[in-house]
Here is the input.
Amino acid sequence: MTNVARQPRKLTVDKFLAFYETRPDEEQWQLVDGTAILMTPPFLMHQRLASNLQSLLNDALAIHAPHLRAEQRIGIELMPQFPFYRPEPDVAVIDVKFPPGRRYVDRFYLVAEVLSDSDDERIDLKREFYRAHEHNQAILLVSQDKQELEIQIRRDRAWVTDVLSGPDRTLSLPDFGLTCRVEDVYRDTPFSTA
Here is the structure.
């Protein structure tokens, strides 16, 4: 007789939402590859990096693309294409106009994740999800351990990756009007040299 380990069933978005509605309002959850993940309160470094990036993007978008806006912790869903995903990136560039009462968007143009130790397993799954979205043009991964950004930009149908290490490297996102130094993303953190 053979013992076969049962694989846990993946949650669909509908089942995830039914579960989420039973949770207290102060809890924040996301769905990644069919797994509900409780998001713990982030470290101050995490929040500062996300806030800095949001501010830099919004300053650039106000001039270059005023129909877009960077927001933090916006839920994303792409139904029916991805029934097991409902992530909340740390920063996302979305349309300024949206219907009232929405918690999630189905269109985004840039996503950024501030990397945490708990992201090790999931970041590749999220990146695959983000790349599949037809409107997304950029994925930015921000390290909390050093001044380093990984940028992935869609060029035609391929994704081009660059790693920017050190304060004086230039982050260039021409589709969003943003050109800044890596140091600007790390402003007012323990890694800031200013």
The CA atoms of residues 74 and 88 lie 5 Å apart. Helices lie at 13-20, 44-64, 123-132, 182-185. Confidence is low (pLDDT under 50) at residues 1-7.
